[in-house]
Amino acid sequence: MFLVMVCLVLQPSLGWSLVPLASPRFDVAQGAGMRLDTIVSPRQPGRGGITRRNPAHRRGICLGMAERTIIVGDVHGCREEVEALLRLTRYKPEVDRLVFVGDLVAKGPDSLGVLRLLSSLGATSVSGNHEQKLLRCARQSRALFPPIELLDSEHWGIMKELRTKPHVWKYVKEMPLYLHLPDYDSVVVHAGMLPGKRPEHMSAFDLTMIRTVMETGEASPRKDAGKPWTELWDGPERVIFGHDAEKGLQVGKGFIGLDTGCVYGGKLSALVLPGKSGNGDVMSVPAHRNYAAIVKRPAPSRNRPRSS
Ligand SMILES: [Mn+2]
C-alpha cells in the first residue's frame, strides 16, 4: 500500500518551497532504458511573450512516496494524446505521481480539456511560457487599452474561457515555476536553467524561455546567441524540461528534454521514473495529427517580449 502525500511548506524568503519527506533516493542512469526509437524532425517550438516579473505564485511542492513518477513533455492542448500516453504507461492515479513540464495550452485542439483532465487527476505542472502568457493576458484584461498583440492572440480567447471555470483558472494561476524531485536528484522546469543558479533565484522569464546563455551570463530566449544552456549545465541536479521541440528528445549529462513536438505532428513523450530501483524509461505516443504549422520568426527580446 502506497500513500501519496502532498504537502506545501511555506518558507519566508522564497515563498512556497519544497521540503522532502522521508523517501529513498533513486539514481537513474542517464539514457538507460530509452524506448523512444525515433527523434522527431526539427521543429520550431512555440514562443510566448511574457514579462520578466516574478509572479507571486512561485512555489515548490513536496510530494511523498509514490509508486512511479511520470513526467510528460509539452502538451499544447493535445488531450487525446495525453490520455493515450497515460494508457500506454498504465498510469494509476492512486499510486503514481504525474508531472508535466508546462506549455499545456495553445496551438493544439483542446487546451481547456487538458487543464480539466490534469486538475481532476491531481497532476502537477510547472508553468510554461504559454501559461505565463495567459497570466499576462489576465493582467492586461484590467487595462483600459490592452495591447493589441494580446487582444489578437489565441491566448486571449483561452484566458477568457478559462476564467469562466474558476477551478481550472485557479489551477493555471497556481502552477509553480519549478518542482524539485529530491528522490531523483532532479528539478523540473519548463525551458531550462542558468548554470550556477538555483531555480529559486531565476526569473519567470528565464525559467520559461531560456535557450542559450550569453557571454554576460544572462539567459537568452534565442537559439543563435551564446551557448545552449545544456552545454554549460553542471548540476548539481538533473534538469528535466521541455520547450525545445526543434531538438526533440534530449538526453545528456545532467538533463533530459522531453518536448518531442506533439502539436506539430511529432510525439508526446514521458519519462517514467521507477519508485524503487532501476532505470527510467522514455515512452511516447504519436500525435494523432499535425495540429499546428511551424512559424519561424525572430525570438522575443528579453525586455520587449513578443505576444506569441
Ligand atoms: Mn515553451
Describe this structure in words.
With 308 residues, the chain is of the alpha/beta class. It has one domain: Purple Acid Phosphatase, chain A, domain 2 (4-Layer Sandwich), CATH 3.60.21.10. Helix content is 21%, strand content 19%. The strands form five sheets. A five-stranded mixed beta sheet has the order 7-6-5-16-17. A five-stranded mixed beta sheet has the order 8-9-13-15-14, with no helix packed on it. A three-stranded antiparallel beta sheet has the order 11-10-12. Manganese (II) ion (MN) binds next to loops. The site of manganese (II) ion has 7 residues, from loops.
Q: What would you say about this model in short?
A:
This protein has helices at 79-88, 111-121, 129-140, 148-151, 154-162, 166-173, 204-209, 229-232; strands at residues 6-7, 9-11, 15-17, 62-63, 68-72, 97-100, 124-125, 179-181, 186-188, 212-213, 219-220, 227-228, 238-241, 250-252, 255-257, 267-274, 281-286. The protein is of the alpha/beta class and 308 residues long.
Please give the number of β-strands: 17
Mean pLDDT: 79
**Molecules bound to protein:** manganese (II) ion
Query: What characteristic shape results from the CA principal axes?
Result: globular
The structure class reads alpha/beta
Number of domains: 1
Rounded to an integer in angstroms, the radius of gyration calculated over CA atoms is 18 Å
CATH homologous superfamily caption = Metallo-dependent phosphatases
The strands making up the biggest β-sheet line up spatially as 7-6-5-16-17
